[in-house]
Write a structure and sequence with these properties.
Length: 425
């Protein structure tokens, strides 16, 4: 039997019982809509969370921390043995090894000093100073909005983020103060106790550059030369700080592009250091959402399997009603294969119609969720839409469910004896 004839017969049979065809397809429609909508929501949530994380910092920056670990141990029964600890410090040798990794474009040790009350005129701000190597700030901090980068002679100079100006309050009224920090000198005073006496020292820094706005936490940063921060810490603690012995607090590594992040992270971790990056956090969160998508898709797929039972029932009823028709078709030359294909195409068509209807319904639901999401998520708009691969997969899955559900009724129809089929009342 020609394919054209088979399709004509299938169309006529489905059109003859429209109500049953529509009701059977509605079952598939609900299952497909549930799968596509739930997975689309999960994808939108993942995308929203990732965007918010990306806004918290530069995705091409890796932060390296020193590591302390223990080895050996005492026998729990004899009490003999010993436990030793070792600290993997970040020194010049470690920094050179970081620079040798392919994909790394800049490395700088970092020394921080937090909780500093800086004053400009009648305004003040509580800031954290980030000490960085003066010849690395261009690669790591990015482009300047105005001013210049550090030079070799800079000691008490600072480069601030674009929103540093928004952190100031009036000393008398505690109200926010708007000021242009570029070119201004801010001061801060620190204390230490030496020989039982309280000593104070005031430092003055000139802001020589303002970074371009990035829309991240780096917009509030205050960069100063790392040697200056170390000297301030030495004065406070009244002791010498030697990074080659004690190590730096941490290091920053800037990579060439986002695709280099995972490779460089792996290489540095193999050296025994702890690495944190925005990309690491994004990978962990994406893994959680992938599991969530699998679970939601599995739950929704149950409704599609139930719809498959409806297709089995519809096809079985159709075969009982058309037993004489099958007998006549076999009597005039239709083979078992022709009958099998005819009913398989019929059941697959039910799945296909349900799949198309499910995609349309999920599009409507996704649009509604997108519109109302700001009212549910405190202003965050979720852009819920089904990716093309999900639409394609959902339709194919619905057709496959239709084929599987229709196979056994179709097999039974194909194996009917022509004589018994013609005798059937």
């Amino acid at each position: 039997m020609r394919l054209k004839d088979t399709i004509t017969i299938v169309s006529r049979n489905l059109g003859r019982s429209k109500t049953r065809t529509i009701l059977t397809s509605v079952g598939v429609l609900i299952g497909v809509a549930a799968i596509v909508t739930l997975i689309s929501i999960s994808i939108a949530l993942n995308r929203s969370v990732v965007e918010q994380i990306e806004n918290s910092g530069d995705i091409k920056i890796l932060t390296i921390y020193p590591v302390s670990f223990k080895f050996g141990g005492r026998n729990p029964f004899s009490g003999k043995g010993s436990t030793q600890s070792e600290i993997k410090i970040i020194d010049r040798n470690a920094l050179k090894n970081f620079e040798k990794i392919e994909g790394v474009i800049a490395v700088s040790p970092i020394y921080e000093y937090s909780g500093i009350k800086v004053e400009i005129g009648k305004a003040y701000s509580i800031s954290t100073f980030t000490g960085i190597e003066i010849n690395k700030i261009k690669e790591i901090a990015g482009e300047l909005e105005k001013g210049r980068y550090f030079t070799k002679v800079d000691k008490y100079s600072a480069i601030v983020g674009a929103k540093f100006e928004e952190t100031f309050l009036d000393k008398n009224t505690e109200k926010e103060v708007k000021l242009d920090p570029f070119g201004k000198i801010f001061k801060f005073t620190i204390q230490r106790i030496k020989d039982g006496k309280v000593e104070t020292k005031t430092y003055s820094f000139k802001i020589v550059g303002v970074l371009k706005q990035k829309g991240t936490q780096e917009d509030y940063v205050v960069y100063v030369p790392i040697d200056t921060i170390i000297s301030i810490r030495e004065w406070i603690t009244n002791s010498n700080i030697n990074p080659e012995i004690n190590g730096y607090q941490r290091a920053i590594v800037k990579v060439r592009d986002v695709s280099s992040v995972n490779y460089v992270t792996k290489k540095i971790e193999e050296m025994g250091f702890t690495v944190f990056s925005i990309q690491t956090l994004i990978n962990a969160i994406s893994n959680v959402f992938s599991i969530l998508q699998f679970i939601l898709g599995g739950i929704a797929a149950i409704s599609l399997i139930v719809a498959g039972v409806g297709i089995v029932n519809t096809m079985t009823m159709s075969i009982y009603e058309r037993t004489r028709q099958i007998g006549i078709m076999k009597a005039i030359g239709a083979s078992n294969k022709d009958i099998l294909w005819m009913f398989l195409i019929e059941s697959a068509t039910l799945g296909f119609f349900g799949g198309i209807g499910g995609i349309i319904l999920s599009f409507i639901l996704n649009s509604i969720i997108t519109i109302i999401s700001p009212f549910i998520t405190q202003g965050v708009k979720l852009k819920v839409f089904a990716p093309f691969y999900l639409i394609f997969f959902a339709i194919i899955f619905a057709v496959v469910i239709g084929l599987i559900a229709g196979y056994f009724p179709s097999k039974r129809a194909a194996n009917l004896s022509p004589v018994e089929a013609l005798r059937y009342e």
